[in-house]
Amino acid sequence: MLAGKAGVSREYSDMIKELDSVVLTTDLPEHGLTQDDIGTVVLVHEGGKGCTVEFMTLAGRTIAVVTLLANQVRQIARDEIAHARHVATAA
User: Fold this and answer.
1) Residue 46 φ then ψ, to 5°
2) What is the fold of 10-75?
3) In angstroms, how far is CA 59 from the centroid of its own chain?
């Protein structure tokens, strides 16, 4: 099941593909994720209505694999730079 609010951008299905890096557009505190975190698309669902995205630390440890709606991610813009932040470790 796709998490979040309904609404699908037509251009999403034309642009985001499996293995693309994407930017999270909303906080997902239940997964330890915040807006602007970067993840990798591992699966596109229903012609672009959503996708499964893996979020990892810079050292390669998976933080979360989450199925999201199209409006919860966006492509990385050409003029953006990545920003590192610490993630809480699971107890």
Assistant:
1) 45, 50
2) SH3 type barrels. (2.30.30)
3) 18
State percent of the chain over pLDDT 90.
75
For the chain, which residues make up each domain, given as ranges? 10-75
pTM value?
0.81
What stretch of H or E contains 65? Answer: strand 62-69
> What one-letter code names the amino acid at 4?
G
Phi then psi for residue 34, to 5 deg, are -130, 160
- Determine the pLDDT at residue 90: 56
Q: Tell me the residue type at 61.
A: R
Taking the C-alpha atoms of residue 29 and residue 43, their distance in angstroms, rounded to an integer, is: 22
- State mean pLDDT over 56-69: 97
Give the whole-angstrom CA distance, residue 63 versus residue 57: 7
Q: Which of 78, 63, 60, 1 is nearest to 29 (CA)?
A: 63
